[in-house]
Structures are given as structure tokens and as C-alpha cells.
């Protein structure tokens, strides 16, 4: 979904290849799904019956959705974090990013921000702490929290589920080659946005999430990955790819050759400048 790679100092070669969707006022990152946040009981104006958390949402989006679902003042859910006693891994240091699992959650009459956040984290732990994920993480020389972090990047970057395994392989290949990840999704996370137009100046910001300037993984996940992204992470597709770009919807190109990648990016840029780019 994102494009990565070492641009020359005079020009930036990479751009996001997929537009983010806007659903009920919130930017949907990653595998964007235009679904309603709140599901109302048929024929009533009562409190919503459930809350939908799409794949790829950031923690801030989840907090906002919970506030709306429970008709609470903005910021209430985020402020409840110290009281929620979430069962997060030690590496998270109390930050639930990546562990607010995407799913549909029932809204009981006595639901609170703390109970909903706990439900999400408990669901994530059930999904992530099982033997398949633990074994897959170990097989790829990482712990589960690192696997969730990679899966969150895969979620944000892959244009389709079919591309997730290839995106994961690009991440592993770049790490193994000692290359910075150079993922626009991590820069966008640092800037609290989602955009196609990441500039050269954006890639110079001081942030531990700036994967153009920092080596290795960001310090935390950057969104809530779903099961498909996690499966792709623990069992990535075989390949030598180091670069990728979604030239247009349905046309993501992976390559190990930098010059080929430059040509693909040039085609992407030309496509974006066309009067009516394919949607």
C-alpha cells in the first residue's frame, strides 16, 4: 500500500499508491472498509447494539468511536486508559496501539470505555498469543509484539489481502539487508494523518516512527492489524523483493531492482497527474 525505498537526495521516488477511505468522519487506514461504526437495533433510535472496529484503525480512532458509541464527551475513553488495567505485553509499556483488535463488539447496557477496551485487548491476546503466531514469530526471529508491529505496517501498506504476504516479505528483506524500511505509513502515523502526498520534508521529521531516518521497526504498532495481516507476517510469501508501488488499483508491482522500481514509481506519478486517474 505504501511505497518504500531509498530516494536520491534531490527527489523523492515514493508515494502511497492507494487512497484512504473516509468512514463516518474517521480516516480508515490499512485495509479500509467502508462500514458503519455503529449498528443500531432495527426500527429504534435506541443505543447502538454493536460497535464495529475496522482493520487498520489507529488507537485514536477507536477511542473516538467508543466515545460516540457510548455518548460520552470527546476524550473520555482515552482518559480512561489508566483505569482500564489492560493486559498488554510488557513491550507495549501501557500503549494499546495494535492490540485494540478489529471486530464487531456488542454494546451491553452497562458497557464502559474500560470494559470495551479490555474486551478488545483480550480478543487481541487470544488471537496473537496462540501457538501458530508464537511459533511463526520465533521462526522469523522476532517476538509476538514485533510480529504485531510488522503486521500493522502490512495492514497499512498492502493494497489488497493478496499483497500482504509480499509486503511482509519486503519488510523482512529490508531488515535483513540492513536497509531502513522507508514506509510512508510510519511517517503518516508520526504526523497523525493518512495521505498520498508525503513530501521529502515529511521524511525528515524527528520521530521514532520515521522509518526513513531510523533503522529497524518503529517502537510500537501503527494500527490494529487483522488476522490476514498477521498470517502474512508469520508466513510471508517467498521472494527477493525490496521495493513496491501500487501504480493504480489492482496493479501493485514488487521488485528487487531499484531502477525497475524507479520506472514503476514514474508510472505511478504520471498516473496520478492524469486528468482522470483510474479509481
Describe what this molecule looks like in 3D.
- The chain has two domains: 22-128, no CATH class; 143-272, no CATH class.
- Residues 1-36 have low confidence and may be disordered.
- It has helices at 59-69, 76-79, 81-84, 113-128, 131-139, 144-157, 164-176, 184-190, 227-234, 258-273, and strands spanning 21-23, 26-28, 38-39, 50-52, 104-106, 243-248, 251-255.
- The two termini are 15 Å apart.
- Helix 5 runs parallel beside helix 9, helix 6 crosses helix 7 and helix 6 (144-157) packs across helix 9.
- Helix content is 37%, strand content 9%.
- The strands form three sheets. Strands 3-4-5 form a three-stranded antiparallel beta sheet, with helices on one face. It has a two-stranded antiparallel ribbon with strand order 1-2. The chain has a two-stranded antiparallel sheet with strand order 6-7.
- The protein is mostly helical and 279 residues long.
Largest sheet: 3 strands, antiparallel
Task: Characterize the quaternary organization of these chains.
Answer: single chain
Q: How many strands appear in the DSSP assignment?
A: 7
The end-to-end distance, rounded to whole angstroms, is: 15 Å
Based on CA inertia axes, which overall geometry fits? globular
What strand order characterises the main sheet? 3-4-5
Q: How big a fraction of the residues is strand?
A: 5-15%
Question: Average pLDDT value?
Answer: 85
* Domain count: 2
Low-confidence stretches: 1-36
Helix content: 25-40%
Query: How many helices in DSSP terms?
Result: 10
| H-E order | EEEEHHHEHHHHHHEEH
C-alpha Rg (nearest Å): 19 Å
- By helix and strand content, what is the structural category? mainly alpha
